[in-house]
Amino acid sequence: MTDKNGASPAKSCSECGLLNCYRRDRYFPDFCLTESTHPEQVAETIELYDGDSLDGRVARAAAEVEGKYYGRLTRVEEIIAFAKRIEAKRIGIATCMGLIEESRIFARILRVHGLEPYAVVCKVGSVDKTAIGISDELKLCKGCFEGICNPVLQARVLNEAKTDLNH
């Protein structure tokens, strides 16, 4: 596969079959982002995890949940364990319209565990596709109102709702 100029797109972690960054028991491929990251950048991020900073608490909580529960809990259970470790109460759910039923189930599970879910569907703002230059012929239902996915507004709504953790 090539781009419009005939160049191959840049490879990233999704093309890596080795994932050597986890165990360092293989080799790093030529396109590895770990290998191309400057040591100063790595050192700067490690400094962010120092002490009782939010970044540090989040990094340690993530590592603890992985170490204690990986492969033993569902992702939903891991999210709950992680949220409790960082003392998050209000959990933001940025959901796709096609996953709203699953998001409703997730919200009920969060409530049962003493957390407060706050969901925002992708179509928030209800902006027709034509407003961003999409022709009517590209709509699923031509001649009808068809809302865009609006991840920027989803994030803003969750920030305004002062969620502690977003999923």
The overall number of domains is 3
Total DSSP helices: 7
What is the averaged pLDDT score? 94
What percent of residues are in strands? 5-15%
Describe this structure in words.
By secondary structure, the protein is mainly α. The protein has three domains: 10-48, no CATH class; 50-87; 89-167, no CATH class. Helix content is 41%, strand content 8%. It contains seven helices and three strands; from the N terminus they run H-H-H-H-H-E-H-E-H-E. Helix 4 packs antiparallel against helix 5 (75-85). The protein is globular and about 55 Å long. The mean pLDDT is 94.
Give the topology, please.
Blueprint (H helix, E strand, L loop, with lengths): L19 H4 L9 H4 L2 H10 L5 H16 L5 H11 L4 E6 L4 H13 L3 E6 L29 H10 L4 E2 L1
Parallel strand pairs: 1-2, 1-3
Helix pairs in contact: 4-5
Features:
single chain, 167 residues, 8% strand
